[in-house]
Amino acid sequence: MDPVLDIQRLSIRYAGAPAPAVRDVSFTLGRERLGIVGESGSGKSTVGRAIMRLLDTAEITADRMQFEEVDLLNAPERKMLDVRGKRMSMILQDPKFSLNPIQRCGHQIAEAYRTHVRCSKSEARARAIAMLEQVHIRDPERVYDLYPHEVSGGMGQRVMIAMMLLTDPDLVIADEPTSALDVTVRLQVLRILDGLVRDKGIGLIMISHDLNLVRAFCDRVLIMYAGRVVEALDARDLDNAQHPYSRGLLAAQPRIGGTREPLPVLARQDSWLEPLEAQA
Amino acid sequence: MRLDRRRLNGIAEQGVSIFVTLFGLLILTFVIGRIMPVDPVRAIVGEDATREVYENVYRQLGLDKPMWQQFLLYMRDVVTLDFGTSIRTGQPVLQDIARVLPATIELATFAILIGAGLGTPLGVIAAVNKDRWPDQLIRVISLMGHSMPIFWTGMIALLVFYANLGWVGGSGRMSQFYIGLVPERTNFLLIDSALAGEWEVFRSAINHIILPAALLGYSSSAYITRMTRSFMLDQLGQEYVTTARVKGLSRRQTVWRHAFGNIRVQLVTIVALAYGALLEGAVLIETVFAWPGFGQYLTSNLLIGDMNAVMTCVLIVGVIFIGLNILSDILYRVFDPRTR
Ligand SMILES: Nc1ncnc2c1ncn2[C@@H]1O[C@H](COP(=O)(O)OP(=O)(O)OP(=O)(O)O)[C@@H](O)[C@H]1O
Ligand SMILES: [Mg+2]
User: Fold this and answer.
1) In angstroms, what CA-CA distances link B333 with A25, B1, B120, B232, B264?
2) Which chain B residues in 250-279 lie under 8 Å from chain A, judged by CB atoms?
3) CA-nearest residue of chain A to B332?
4) Distance (Å, rounded) from C-alpha A216 to C-alpha A193?
5) Is A240 found in the same domain as A190?
């Protein structure tokens, strides 16, 4: 089967930045769940936003950047308006900021539908409400009319998920979808997202800091460090990661039932910037 | 909108704060009346009045009473809308105000419509094109509006658009020819002439107001542009704007459907402020265009120490600002669901 996304040697430099934020990143994605982990500033979100073509001023180069039949390197913005929100979408981190504070939740969900499908207001409303049910919101009619400040974080993020999955996209990028949430609702929200992604056969890119979370919810994992992918492996092989940075990350994860000694701190080395093959 | 306990409390609180502000305003105007370096009695009786006449008027004005009693009397006068007589015009101040204030309101309203109608879209365009040529160009346009000497520009504009091109009417509120033709009901010339069905006068009034209003509007659009730009830049950096783009909205839809709604509150506040400043009366423009407005009235009375008139004018400016504050408070509640 053709991949949903095919990225080869993607490099991104922000306007005015001396060095690229992302360098030579390559991966392909089928209808599977790919995790991208790495520390803050390693370029995870930058990769996600480049795929959505949201980085208007950054300089983006790649050998290949293909989403289904769309060439993301050269597609005109007109084409992207058709792709964004319909065939690929993105779940942002914190519903407190990512929802428009002065519009009702339901209206914002329905707008995602109406942008791409010609239909009446009442049909869009019905769709939105059905979608709210799918993200396990018990009284969707009421939630439809609430403003973002009137819903909890977990509820807000489910609204976000509903908004981004309503058009049945082929690709969803979830940029730290649960890090702004209470620990108690994180798993619940992730399970909802995971269930929908599997049901609908969506290709998912899950960006996260959290190795344990990626291990549980992804098929494959990319480990990024300083703008590069230093290692790519199956989620179940995560414990056998070879790259010293990956090993350092793993060692720095807290484990239930582990020792109570302080967690080790990463001691960075310049050699980490080399990809794994070169180190061998 | 439900009238629950919290809302009632809010309204009560606002009522109290308005009351306190008004009271403070009365104290202010009263003090201004006392410290002005004019002798109110002399201003009435003239230089060569006898001592007896002087003392008589002195007592009539209540100046022999203690301060607090004078203040109470002043409050009584204000509440009964008795503002005394203007020495300069010899008419009741209230009657003068009823004549000059509508002229200024008319001009200021036209000007703010132009100013906001020009400044808001320019500010948005500047923000969306930050640091590119449209932004640069708009910066120059609004810098010119901000720094133009309005007295000089006014005269040049009169020369060009009235004397040379003949596109607009000259000074005054209408052509000499029409003065006295329509009955003065509201003293808003546009309303009065429309009420009387005198459309020629109406057109003449529009012709006369357009140039001074455009100049005032242009100069206040500079401020509105600058503020809109910065409010907008603030919003364009927010995550919900990214969400809107992720949904597949175009840049224009993102800006007008999402970001713009979030600057309305701030926008209303600064437009109200700019409007208030215009209502105080633009003395320079009113002078150049011989516009019989509030600014001219206040200034000429201030210059000759016409106490009753000045105190009343200050009071009115204060009341206007309180009113605009209340208005922008109400709109705040309408535009932002978080405040309801
Ligand atoms: N708009 C921008 N302009 C310039 N530089 C940027 C911009 N956004 C991000 N960067 C830089 O690019 C690098 C990668 O940032 P990015 O946000 O992709 O990291 P991240 O891995 O998502 O981090 P986090 O885990 O904190 O979200 C960082 O060095 C950051 O400072
Ligand atoms: Mg990030």
Assistant:
1) 49, 11, 21, 20, 11
2) 250, 258, 261-262
3) A102
4) 13
5) yes
Residue B151 pLDDT > 70, yes or no? Answer: yes
The beta-carbon contacts of A105-108 under 8 Å, at least 24 apart in sequence, are: A105/A143, A105/A144, A105/A145, A105/A146, A105/A147, A105/A148, A105/A151, A105/A156, A105/A159, A106/A132, A106/A143, A106/A144, A106/A145, A106/A146, A108/A159, A108/A163, A108/B243
Tokens of B37: 């370096």
A93 CB near ligand 1 (under 6 Å)? no
**Better-predicted residue by pLDDT, B125 or B2:** B125
* Burial of B338 per CB tally in 10 Å (0-12, 13-18, 19+): exposed
> Does the domain formed by B93-339 have CATH 3.40.50.720?
no
How much of chain A, in percent, has pLDDT values that exceed 90? 74
Instruction: Write out chain B residues lying below 8 Å of A164, CB-based.
Output: 246
pTM of the model: 0.86
pLDDT digits (tens, 9 = 90+) for A175-209: 999 988 888 889 999 999 999 999 999 999 999 98
Domain boundary among A166, A189, A211: A166
| Separation in Å, CA of B236 to nearest CA in chain A | 12
- Both tokens of A151, joined, read 């819903």
Q: How many domains does chain A have?
A: 2
Domain ranges of chain B: 16-79, 93-339
Q: Which of residues 194-253 of B touch A (CB under 8 A)?
A: 238-240, 242-250
Of A92, A108, A149, the CB nearest to B338: A149
Name the residue in chain A with its Cα closest to that of B258.
Answer: A100
Of A247, A210, A229, which Cα lies nearest the Cα of A28? Answer: A229
Of A52, A77, A72, A69, the closest CA to residue A61 belongs to A72
Same domain, A115 and A136: yes
- pLDDT of chain A along its 280 residues, tens only? 678 999 999 999 999 999 999 999 999 999 999 999 998 999 999 999 999 999 988 999 999 999 999 999 999 999 999 999 999 999 999 999 999 999 999 999 999 999 999 999 999 999 999 999 999 999 999 999 999 999 999 999 999 999 999 999 999 999 999 988 888 889 999 999 999 999 999 999 999 988 888 999 999 999 999 999 999 999 888 888 888 888 877 877 766 666 666 766 677 777 777 666 544 4
Render pLDDT for A107-152 as a digit per residue (tens, 0 to 9): 999 999 999 999 999 999 999 999 999 999 999 999 999 999 999 9
Distance A241 CA to ligand 1 centre (A): 25
pLDDT tens column, B110-146: 999 999 999 999 999 999 999 999 999 999 999 998 8
Is A38 close to ligand 1, i.e. is its CB under 6 Å away? yes
Q: Is the domain of A82 the same as that of A122?
A: no
**What CATH number should be reported for the domain holding residue A59?**
3.40.50.300
- Best CA proximity match to B148, nearest among B214, B219, B210: B219
Residues around ion ligand 2, judged by CB within 5 A, are A 45
ipTM surpasses 0.85: yes
Which structural domain range is residue A148 located in? 95-166
Question: Apex CA B156: angle with CA B154 and CA B162, to 5°?
Answer: 90
Q: Per the CB < 8 Å rule, is A100 touching B244? A: yes
